[in-house]
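Propose amino acids for all 629 sites.
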């Protein structure tokens, strides 16, 4: 006999039911999770503060600075992007601004697709935030310009489609005015996105091709008129790094979702456009989202496209550029050990990173011990002058100031100022230069300009107050040291004669240890062992009890190549260094340079030594080595 309990068993919890989610809840939950993941990724992986310190985005609360953005269409959005870029001073605030913009693009993309009746294509609305992330990874904070412009265009298109009567003459005239305003304030891609988005909405009926042609011709005429008044072309010029890639990304971000909406509304209009408010009786309802919906062809296509796009974005992440930024930021914060650590992880150092590496090697006492350990240098020069570009000019300014070559530091700072504009670090250095040269009024000009920067305002005002109390900077220990080292004589020259400038510094202040070590390193890099030994002999007693490693290697090489030359100072050389040098000589005597395999073994065995550097960089006459006897 069955028990009463067993005869009345409960059915399974979801038996006979189809588990479905409300589309709105799915979209909200997905958006929140995606926004949280994006915020964490940008804050911890991209680290906006690295770009902020590297690029020093310019933004000043002045009318003159605002006028700079009206020289070509799109200036209003570029000005707003420059203001928002200041939030990158902190990782969390920069990531928050980026996440809000990315979320806004995703929300507007959903609204565009719904308005055009393309509910089945809603997963495509995840593409704009991912494209925006791709732009951020490839072009840094300048991606804000694209995000703001596209968001503005989409928002205006949605507002115009809801606020004007379908096909009315007033709506057509208003659309022309708005299109001209979008082109004026946000530029070409935002203008084109606005036009395509408008075409996907009900006011431009599929049957009214004449009205559509009039709309496009009028909008084009208005944009051409704006561009002509500015003396610019309709399409923006191809400038900056990777211009083709940047234009393609901007175009994909601006037009991807509007083109999908236009195709859905004009080419395959299976369902009527979405209508605000409650559905009318007898209207065709749109299919609700459900897990079963992913089994359809459109659902699979949208899901696979989104996943592939996410993988492509992640794979495009430039880790080397991020490490270079971290190196330059560490140098700006005088974190020299971090500079050395980052430099060892990069396959190749750009010119600016190489210059700050030399300074960090000096400050950690490793310039003459580990200079040739870094085989990823690109210049192999201490002070390249203007030959390596604006970034290298800027990187040399702190080194030249610390050495005491204030005039050279001022010249390179002005060169960088001409090419890069009023970067805050350049304004700060030029203020210090004018203090050192007893020109406090000129220093106040640069500090007053810096005080209008929203991030540097407080620090600049503190410096202005200190300058008022101490115009000569005598209370600043760093400026006192530079003033002690400053050259007082003129040296007619062109370019950047590194040896002459360093010798001038030592004539002014023989105790300038930085100039002396830089001069020794310069002669090693130039493979001029005779002058290297001469400057070793001029400084007695030497500040070492044991040779630095590269000096030790250079002395042994000099004694081998020039046995009859002046003897270097008598400091003990480690037995292991002598043994390794004998092995180097033996390898050369056995014909290590005669085959590819021999050269490979020589490079692996003596990697990071001055001998290997001299072998590959010495001029042809000095590259002939005596026999190993």
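Proposal:
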């Amino acid at each position: 006999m069955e028990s009463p309990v067993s005869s009345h068993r409960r059915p399974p919890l979801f038996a006979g039911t189809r588990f479905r989610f409300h589309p709105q809840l799915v979209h909200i939950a997905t958006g929140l999770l995606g926004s949280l993941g994006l915020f964490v990724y940008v804050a911890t992986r991209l680290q906006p503060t690295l770009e902020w310190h590297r690029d020093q985005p310019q933004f000043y609360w002045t009318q003159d600075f605002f006028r700079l953005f009206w020289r070509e269409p799109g200036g209003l959005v570029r000005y707003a992007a420059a203001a928002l870029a200041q939030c990158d001073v902190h990782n969390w605030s920069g990531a928050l601004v980026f996440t809000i913009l990315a979320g806004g693009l995703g929300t507007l993309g959903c609204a565009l697709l719904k308005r055009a009746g393309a509910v089945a294509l809603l997963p495509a609305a995840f593409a704009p935030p991912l494209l925006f992330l791709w732009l951020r990874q490839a072009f840094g904070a300048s991606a804000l310009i694209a995000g703001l412009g596209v968001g503005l265009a989409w928002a205006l298109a949605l507002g115009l489609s809801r606020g004007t009567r379908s096909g009315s003459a007033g709506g057509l005239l208003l659309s022309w005015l708005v299109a001209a305003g979008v082109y004026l304030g946000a530029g070409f891609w935002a203008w084109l996105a606005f036009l395509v988005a408008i075409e996907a909405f009900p006011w431009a009926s599929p049957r009214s091709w004449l009205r559509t042609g009039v709309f496009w011709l009028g909008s084009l005429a208005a944009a051409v008129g704006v561009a002509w008044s500015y003396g610019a072309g309709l399409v923006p010029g191809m400038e900056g790094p990777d211009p083709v890639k940047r234009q393609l990304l901007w175009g994909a971000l601006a037009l991807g979702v509007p083109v999908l909406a236009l195709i859905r509304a004009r080419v395959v209009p299976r369902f009527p456009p979405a209508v605000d408010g409650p559905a009318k009786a007898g209207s065709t309802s749109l299919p609700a989202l459900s897990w079963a919906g992913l089994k359809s062809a459109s659902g699979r296509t949208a899901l696979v496209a989104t996943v592939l796009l996410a993988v492509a974005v992640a794979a495009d992440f430039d880790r080397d550029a991020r490490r270079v930024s971290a190196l330059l930021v560490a140098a700006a914060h005088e974190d020299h050990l971090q500079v050395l650590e980052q430099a060892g992880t990069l396959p190749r150092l750009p010119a600016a990173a190489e210059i700050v590496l030399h300074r960090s090697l000096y400050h950690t006492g490793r310039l003459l011990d580990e200079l040739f350990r870094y085989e990823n240098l690109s210049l192999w020069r201490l002070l390249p002058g203007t030959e390596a570009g604006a970034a290298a000019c800027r990187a040399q300014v702190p080194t030249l100031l610390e050495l005491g070559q204030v005039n050279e530091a001022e010249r390179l700072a002005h060169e960088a100022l001409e090419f890069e504009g009023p970067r805050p670090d350049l304004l700060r250095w030029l203020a210090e230069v004018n203090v050192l040269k007893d020109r406090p009024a000129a220093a106040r000009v640069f500090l007053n300009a810096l005080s209008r920067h929203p991030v540097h305002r407080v620090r600049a005002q503190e410096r202005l107050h200190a300058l008022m109390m101490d115009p000569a900077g005598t209370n600043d220990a760093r400026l006192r040291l530079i003033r002690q080292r400053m050259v007082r004589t003129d040296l007619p020259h062109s370019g950047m004669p590194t040896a002459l400038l360093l010798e001038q510094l030592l004539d002014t202040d023989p105790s300038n240890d930085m100039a002396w070590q830089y001069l020794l390193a310069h002669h090693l890099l130039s493979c001029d062992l005779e002058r290297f030994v001469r400057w070793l002999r001029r400084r007695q007693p030497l500040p070492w009890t044991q040779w630095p490693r590269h000096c030790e290697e250079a002395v042994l090489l000099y004694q081998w190549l020039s046995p009859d030359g002046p003897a270097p100072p008598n400091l003990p050389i480690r037995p292991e260094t002598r043994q390794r040098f004998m092995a180097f000589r033996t390898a050369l005597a056995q014909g290590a340079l005669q085959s590819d395999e021999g050269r490979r073994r020589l490079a692996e065995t003596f990697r990071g030594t001055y001998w290997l550097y001299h072998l590959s960089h010495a001029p042809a006459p000095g590259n002939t080595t005596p026999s190993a006897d």
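The longest helix spans residues 91-115. The radius of gyration is 33 Å.
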